[in-house]
């Protein structure tokens, strides 16, 4: 990654975003298991629905984490997202566009109960695809997802936003 | 929960019909619930008895299984939607007969926030538990909450937020209740994904409820305390 050879990447299950209560204990366990082997550990979960508990846990553990409420925000740039956040928008990232069925559609039961679609998404007006890469296939996928959800579609190229800087300076 | 394709609800005796309605609620079968409610009313059941014995009884099972991780949000939404169908028939009849409720709740998502799945679940589960619920919908400013609390003579205020940017608005509402000398008149319950107990305490709510099942139990506990205080006073 970026030609960096001074770090190891430990991936944790992204599906924990659907169960934020699992994030903090798992991060604590992951940090405890590896802290002896590294000078510094950097957590690349944002708050992600933990209600500030991940930040508190990282402070207790003495490790840094990326600031921000969620990946939509840090990919956009936290300051820019706070200013431009549209509460009637449902956001997708590259990852979520690829994994929409596994992370959104099926967990919400929409494969079994499609009649619930508007119960879930009826207050949204637009799906905003925050694109980290320029991938026409993924953009088309995101567009189709918007149609399935009954929402207008908007494409915004964000790149990696604050994530790039956070990793470079960590 | 059951294979009931061939069941004719009108042919069942009262006991079997109520048992079948429990199954139909569990399975989210709105039309069957509406039919069951109408049959019981036609048989001379008091609307309040239909509410408590058929709908509340059935939703109690749904609520317990949701709490225990046996049922999940989509199924509970369908069950609640079925109950809502029955409630639409019962509500005007309950109003006519002056039936008692175990408490009245005004509930809404706070200003700037459009997320209402959790709030809707709480509202429907509260109705399923026998509370009267006034649902203000989404994006509610403080004046709307206060006007509804006063107009409805509510016991409980429920506020929901999904965003870290909107959850501080709950404190604006609670502070306004304090300023107006109304805070002690209401039980204030808050909930939403980014909240926790600490936040609930910090803003002056009576309780943070992590899900709809907890909200119902918490509301019942606080209503019992309120009644006890009133009796003692």
From TrEMBL, chain A:
<dbReference type="Pfam" id="PF07796">
    <property type="entry name" value="DUF1638"/>
</dbReference>
<feature type="domain" description="DUF1638">
    <location>
        <begin position="11"/>
        <end position="166"/>
    </location>
</feature>
<dbReference type="InterPro" id="IPR012437">
    <property type="entry name" value="DUF1638"/>
</dbReference>
<protein>
    <recommendedName>
        <fullName>DUF1638 domain-containing protein</fullName>
    </recommendedName>
</protein>
TrEMBL record, chain B:
<dbReference type="GO" id="GO:0008705">
    <property type="term" value="F:methionine synthase activity"/>
</dbReference>
<comment type="similarity">
    <text>Belongs to the methylamine corrinoid protein family.</text>
</comment>
<feature type="domain" description="B12-binding">
    <location>
        <begin position="102"/>
        <end position="233"/>
    </location>
</feature>
<dbReference type="InterPro" id="IPR036724">
    <property type="entry name" value="Cobalamin-bd_sf"/>
</dbReference>
<dbReference type="InterPro" id="IPR003759">
    <property type="entry name" value="Cbl-bd_cap"/>
</dbReference>
<keyword id="KW-0489">Methyltransferase</keyword>
<dbReference type="InterPro" id="IPR006158">
    <property type="entry name" value="Cobalamin-bd"/>
</dbReference>
<dbReference type="GO" id="GO:0032259">
    <property type="term" value="P:methylation"/>
</dbReference>
<keyword id="KW-0808">Transferase</keyword>
<protein>
    <submittedName>
        <fullName>5-methyltetrahydrofolate--homocysteine methyltransferase</fullName>
    </submittedName>
</protein>
<dbReference type="Pfam" id="PF02310">
    <property type="entry name" value="B12-binding"/>
</dbReference>
<dbReference type="InterPro" id="IPR036594">
    <property type="entry name" value="Meth_synthase_dom"/>
</dbReference>
<keyword id="KW-0479">Metal-binding</keyword>
<dbReference type="GO" id="GO:0046872">
    <property type="term" value="F:metal ion binding"/>
</dbReference>
<dbReference type="GO" id="GO:0031419">
    <property type="term" value="F:cobalamin binding"/>
</dbReference>
<dbReference type="GO" id="GO:0046653">
    <property type="term" value="P:tetrahydrofolate metabolic process"/>
</dbReference>
<dbReference type="InterPro" id="IPR050554">
    <property type="entry name" value="Met_Synthase/Corrinoid"/>
</dbReference>
<feature type="domain" description="B12-binding N-terminal">
    <location>
        <begin position="8"/>
        <end position="102"/>
    </location>
</feature>
<keyword id="KW-0170">Cobalt</keyword>
<dbReference type="Pfam" id="PF02607">
    <property type="entry name" value="B12-binding_2"/>
</dbReference>
<dbReference type="GO" id="GO:0050667">
    <property type="term" value="P:homocysteine metabolic process"/>
</dbReference>
<dbReference type="GO" id="GO:0005829">
    <property type="term" value="C:cytosol"/>
</dbReference>
């Amino acid at each position: 990654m970026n030609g960096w050879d001074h770090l190891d990447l430990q991936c944790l299950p992204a599906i924990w975003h659907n169960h934020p209560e699992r994030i903090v204990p798992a991060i604590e366990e992951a940090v405890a298991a590896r802290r002896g082997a590294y000078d510094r550990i950097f957590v690349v979960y944002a708050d992600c629905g933990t209600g500030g508990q991940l930040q508190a846990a990282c402070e207790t553990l003495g490790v840094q984490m990326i600031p921000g409420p969620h990946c939509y925000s840090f990919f956009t740039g936290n300051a820019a997202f706070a200013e431009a956040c549209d509460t009637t928008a449902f956001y997708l990232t590259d990852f979520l566009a690829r994994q929409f069925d596994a992370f959104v559609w099926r967990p919400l039961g929409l494969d079994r109960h499609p009649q619930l679609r508007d119960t879930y998404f009826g207050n949204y007006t637009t799906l905003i695809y925050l694109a980290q890469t320029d991938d026409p296939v993924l953009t088309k996928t995101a567009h189709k997802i918007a149609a399935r959800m009954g929402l207008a579609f908007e494409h915004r190229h964000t790149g990696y936003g604050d994530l790039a800087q956070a990793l470079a300076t960590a | 929960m059951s294979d009931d394709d061939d069941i004719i609800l009108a042919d069942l005796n009262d006991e079997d019909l109520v048992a079948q309605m429990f199954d139909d609620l569990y399975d989210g079968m709105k039309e069957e619930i509406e039919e069951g409610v109408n049959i019981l009313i036609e048989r001379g059941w008091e609307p309040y008895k239909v509410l408590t014995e058929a709908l509340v009884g059935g939703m109690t099972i749904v609520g317990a299984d949701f709490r225990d991780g046996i049922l999940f949000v989509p199924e509970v939404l369908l069950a609640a939607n079925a109950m809502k169908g029955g409630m639409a028939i019962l509500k005007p009849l309950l109003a006519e007969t002056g039936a008692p409720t175990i408490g009245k709740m005004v509930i809404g998502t706070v200003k700037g926030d459009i997320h209402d799945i959790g709030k809707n679940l709480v509202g429907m589960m509260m109705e399923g538990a026998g509370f009267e619920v006034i649902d203000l919908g989404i994006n509610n400013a403080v004046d709307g909450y206060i006007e509804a609390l006063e107009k409805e003579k509510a016991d409980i205020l429920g506020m929901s937020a999904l965003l870290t940017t909107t959850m501080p608005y709950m404190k604006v509402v609670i502070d306004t209740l304090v300023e107006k000398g109304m805070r002690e008149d209401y039980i204030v319950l808050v909930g939403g994904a980014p909240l926790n107990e600490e936040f609930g305490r910090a803003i002056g709510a009576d309780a943070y409820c992590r899900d709809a099942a907890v909200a119902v139990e918490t509301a019942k506990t606080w209503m019992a305390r309120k009644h006890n205080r009133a009796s003692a006073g």
